[in-house]
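Title: Comparing notes on inverse folding

I've been comparing how different people in this forum approach sequence design from structure. To keep things fair, I'm posting one structure and asking everyone to reply with a full sequence. Here's the target:
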């Protein structure tokens, strides 16, 4: 079963066998995504993909989706209006409050589904510490900052490791899933920014790589047809992870 904990009473949750429960925490961001995509791009991709996955996956355990954390660690984009960022300690503290509440009620598995690459190192770094400190196993699914999209390379013109921010993947996905938020007229070759990030420097800022733009990728290559295939790819990839979690004890 996969459902929103928001729709349940405390008594319904209390009746569940703690060994059958996984809490699911979706984490996105509110940050600039170039001129063609909205500030809530990560959030929108996250919500639509989880919703679609929930329609298809069959799970024997109880996966309870918590309310989304709509903000992330977005200092790299803070020079662009509308971006809101949380510090690493703030995000870690937020999750630790959840873990403490879970421990109080005997629940001991949390799945973090994160759609913003800037958040990924935080969850990866803390996973072992949290398990030792709270006795809660933390599973991490990171759309970006991982190899999540490696198997989708055949769908794309841009190398996955260069599709960094607001590029072909995200623009195509939203052009299909939520076309009303995609500004196709801004997704032009003139606005594309192709960058090779150095694997020894993580202090880059989008204002320096993409001044007055914010895009770090090739949004001009986006199409709704690619988006349809990516939409299917993402929810099926999620389903494969959740099925694996469902079988683990």
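Reply #1:
Here's my take.
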């Amino acid at each position: 079963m996969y459902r929103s904990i928001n729709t349940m009473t405390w008594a319904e949750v209390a009746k569940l066998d703690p060994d059958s429960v996984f809490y699911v925490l979706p984490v996105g961001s509110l940050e600039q995504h170039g001129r063609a995509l909205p500030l809530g791009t990560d959030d929108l991709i996250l919500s639509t993909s989880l919703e679609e996955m929930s329609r298809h996956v069959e799970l024997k355990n109880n996966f309870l989706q918590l309310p989304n954390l709509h903000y992330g660690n977005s200092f790299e984009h803070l020079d662009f209006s509308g971006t809101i960022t949380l510090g690493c300690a703030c995000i870690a503290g937020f999750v630790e409050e959840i873990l403490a509440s879970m421990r109080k009620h005997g629940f001991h598995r949390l799945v973090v589904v994160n759609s913003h690459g800037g958040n990924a190192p935080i969850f990866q770094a803390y996973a072992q510490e949290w398990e030792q400190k709270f006795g809660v196993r933390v599973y991490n699914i990171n759309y970006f900052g991982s190899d999540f999209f490696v198997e989708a390379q055949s769908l794309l013109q841009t190398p996955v490791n260069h599709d960094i921010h607001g590029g072909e993947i995200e623009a195509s996905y939203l052009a299909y899933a939520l076309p009303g938020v995609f500004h196709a007229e801004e997704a032009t070759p003139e606005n594309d920014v192709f960058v090779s990030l150095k694997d020894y420097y993580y202090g880059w800022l989008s204002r320096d790589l993409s001044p007055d733009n914010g895009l770090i990728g090739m949004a001009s290559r986006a199409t709704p047809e690619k988006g349809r295939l990516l939409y299917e790819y993402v929810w099926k990839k999620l389903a494969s992870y959740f099925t694996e979690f469902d079988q683990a004890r």
